[in-house]
Specification:
145 residues; alpha+beta; two-stranded antiparallel sheet; 26% helix
Length: 145
């Protein structure tokens, strides 16, 4: 580790089931459907995608196209928590509805084949061990904020 020999950090190339991201971008929905899990495969190939999923992809494509080079695209809001992340979505910003608000999610290659809803939690996690009103006698002395 000398001052003159600075090595450029190389990033690990992303592969999904043995296929790199560039090749994934070119394959059709049916070919991609053969790579995903059985649950997603039934959805993509057997039942097919409905109009609303195509509309979401169209909006994401438009947002990516209108984005300034080097900037992140605009957030596209959606209620489609059950939409499967396809390679075309990578790099997009999606606002996934959780029943209360839209959580902005940046689609990364690692998310391919999963559902959008997995990245937007619908509940507030329980914080155990915090005394509340009427919990015990000791909680009586905690000033109410």
């Amino acid at each position: 580790s000398g001052a003159g020999g600075q090595k450029k950090r190389t990033f690990r190339k992303f592969y999904y089931r043995g296929i790199d991201l560039d090749a994934l971008m070119e394959i059709s929905t049916d070919e991609f459907g053969a790579l995903v899990t059985s649950r997603a495969r039934r959805r993509l190939i057997k039942r097919g995608l409905t109009r609303k999923y195509y509309a979401l992809n169209k909006k994401l494509r438009k947002a990516k196209k209108e984005a300034v080079q080097g900037e992140k695209p605009a957030v596209v809001r959606t209620h489609l928590r059950d939409a499967i992340v396809v390679p075309e979505m990578v790099g997009s910003q999606v606002g996934v509805y959780n029943g209360l608000s839209f959580n902005a999610v940046e689609i990364r290659p690692e998310m391919i084949g999963r559902y959008l809803g997995e990245f937007s939690i619908t509940y507030k996690p329980v914080r155990h061990g915090r005394p509340g009103i009427g919990a015990t006698n000791s909680s009586r002395f905690i000033p109410l904020k």
